């Protein structure tokens, strides 16, 4: 089944503009969207989706994968149904479930569609978060959804569902976390993979200034440096990836407009880390900067 469709005009213009694509970044920031470290990431993701390919976003926690998916759905003017994977994910969580209802004073059994069913029937986006948290035996149910067939047999109604035009799948993955399992090759081969790194430097500076309550330029610079130090420590194996979460950093920036910055960092970043050693490491960096 050919699932490609006409690109909305702003996206067609973005793809056609190879020299001035970086000019789109301030626009994304103003709209509260994901700001990629390189516009190549955005262009590659848009291209894949426009061709009807499934997208797998790989990256550390807090790097903005969910925001990236939301931005893509907005750019395509597509609503997005979401699946949050866990070890408890089952067929009902994906496809829907049967329940008792009353019509004309008679008790009947109704089927309540789940996110996969809804997205396929309405021709919209489906977002599968933490896809490698699901049990390996659960995901093969939607293999047909993820390949050229774009079909699935609903195990609860025996209905064969074929996705309407515009349906597409974006998934996200954090590798190496407790509770995750490696994706099997058959599943991985159904995706185009985009690595989503942390944003840094000037982009992070703009993001803090435009999306948080913090407006003092000097303090913003200190938080940008804090982020760079945390990312470097993660790369050296001194901290877990949670410590460098951009989401947590933005929370700390907000809190710092009321609380002392070091206490804001303690609440928003350090306190989320499991090991005392890591919490102390983060606070030592904060003490040095602030």
Automatic annotation (TrEMBL):
Domain of life: Bacteria
Stretches assigned to the AAA+ ATPase domain: 51-238
Xref: InterPro entries: AAA+_ATPase (IPR003593), ATPase_dyneun-rel_AAA (IPR011704), CbbQ/NirQ/NorQ/GpvN (IPR050764), P-loop_NTPase (IPR027417)
Identification of the protein by name: MoxR family ATPase
Species, as recorded: Tigheibacillus jepli
